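User: Can you help me understand a structure? I only have the sequence.
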Amino acid sequence: MSGCIPARIDSQAKVLHARHADQRNATFVKALATGESYMRDTKALLLRLNLLRADFAVKGSGDSSGPSKSSRQERAEARAFGGA
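Assistant: Let's start by predicting it. Here is the structure, written out as tokens:
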């Protein structure tokens, strides 16, 4: 709607009546969207935290990701105790 004015023209009275946006409704819609975004982000962070606590990792098909934390710890412990 670029270049348009949100208004009505009263051709009999030759008056232009501007439409004002319903600020209460717009604020309510924005608050709901913000709340939903917050809930989505919070759930994602909680999921990530629980996966990290469980030492859960999904490896891709490539070797670029490297070894997991648990396998690195096992290797370090084996070296510390004289293992291979």
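Now, to help you interpret it: Residues 78 and 84 are 6 Å apart (CA to CA). Helices lie at 23-53, 69-80. Let me know which part you'd like to focus on.
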